[in-house]
Amino acid sequence: MEVGDWFAFHFEKPRALSEVIVRSEGQRFPKRIKFLIKTDLKSQWQLMKADIPIDVRPHDEDTIFQYRFENHQNIAAIKLEIVEPTLEPRNSKGWSPAWAIYSMDFKEYKLFGCLLEGSIK
Length: 121
Fold this sequence. Notes:
By secondary structure, this protein is mainly beta. The protein is built from no helices and 6 strands. The radius of gyration is 15 Å and the shape is elongated. The two termini are 21 Å apart. The model has no long low-confidence stretch (mean pLDDT 84).
């Protein structure tokens, strides 16, 4: 886990999202991240929030990143970039924890404002 490492998820087509939730196990998530989006697959990344502190939980608890859009937005891709890595606890080789995303949940608006939920694991 290093500053500047990133994870991106691209949808097949833009989705009308209202919320994104990303889960990891304990210290397997950075302490601070940037959150970026693309409104279509050909557009440039747009910064939604530059420095988001994450409540990194103990090893046996889920660490959760949650972002709720003020208004639902058409999103073609999301990107999480490390601003500050989690450096402890070190493993037997002296390495810091690796970044691991275990699940992503998306809340999407559909016809007539109905809210549907989807999950990637």
